[in-house]
Amino acid sequence: MTQGTLLSRAVTPSPREDLVELLRPEGCALLTVECQRGVVGPDSALPELAAAAQESGALGRVAQLVAAAHDTGVQVLHAVAERRADGRGANRNAPLFRAVERLPVRQLTGSAAVEIAEPVPVVAEDLIVRRLHGLSPIAGTEVDALLRNLGCRTLVITGVSANVAIPAAVFDAVNLGYTAVVPEDAIAGVPASYTPAMVRHTLALVAAVTTADEVVAGWRRTAVTPSRSSFPAP
After folding, report:
1. Residue 25's CB: how many other CB atoms inside 10 A?
2. In the predicted model, is pLDDT for residue 97 greater than 90?
3. Which residues contact 50 (CB under 8 A, 6 or more apart)?
4. Is pLDDT of 132 > 60?
5. Which band of pLDDT confidence, cut at 50, 70 and 90, is reported for residue 13?
6. How many Å apart are CA 27 and CA 23, to the nearest integer?
7. pTM
8. Which segments within the chain are labelled E, that is strand?
9. Are the beta carbons of 203 and 170 closer than 8 angstroms?
10. Inter-residue contact 215 to 181 (CB < 8 Å)
11. Whole-angstrom Cα distance, residue 63 to residue 117?
12. Could you name the domain of life of the organism this protein comes from (predicted)?
């Protein structure tokens, strides 16, 4: 055994046994929430949130998880929030929606703001689910049907924000019968101190809370890694 292998084993945590079965790639999917340039990128409409995602390392860990999912055959879904230029179909029934309309950067369909932000990698096999309304990346979108067609029972949820979209996604996933897994170091909200409080007092009651490293270790432990050519043609 090489020194590098020993070092790798020393620094890479083993997943908890209760996570191993949940994280089997054939029944697991990874959801990134609003990891788009207009939200967490350098020209974000929400610079405080973008800073929290960058400075906490959460966005980098989302990228780590996506890359590991690609390597181990875990399906990746990217949930993107956007709006039509004319605003048709968008909600206006909460202060948040009305505030979004006044922001200098708008998440307009087809614009750079709704592209997946660096350094998160995107490959052809990823599914991108776009929504024009609501708070949740799951309710009223294609996510549930896609997951069921893929045979997914466990959903790893990452991204922003811990204030709104992440808890909405977790609750919706649980209500629909999925087991939600939340890598607490791969989500972010504002203020930064709010995220661990949300995790401890709310998300931990309904989801399996873990870390990005544990999720990656679980996938690698149970994966039968496919080649890219093994994916069925669209």
Report:
1. 22
2. no
3. 39, 40, 41, 42, 44
4. yes
5. low
6. 7
7. 0.88
8. 28-33, 75-81, 127-131, 154-160, 179-183, 187-188, 208-210
9. yes
10. yes
11. 10
12. Bacteria
Sequence-distant (≥ 6) Cβ neighbours of residue 73 within 8 angstroms:
25, 26, 223, 224, 225, 226
Q: Residue type for 151, please?
A: G
Phi-psi region of 157 (alpha: psi -120 to 50; beta: other; left: phi over 0): beta
Give residue 14's pLDDT band: very low, low, confident or very high (50, 70, 90).
low
Closest by CA position to 196, among listed 169, 157, 171, 162: 162
Write the single-letter amino acid at 134: G
Tell me which residue has tokens 């939200």: 39
User: Across-strand partners of 160?
Assistant: 188
Residue at 140: amino acid letter: G
Pairing relation of β-strands 75-81 and 28-33?
parallel
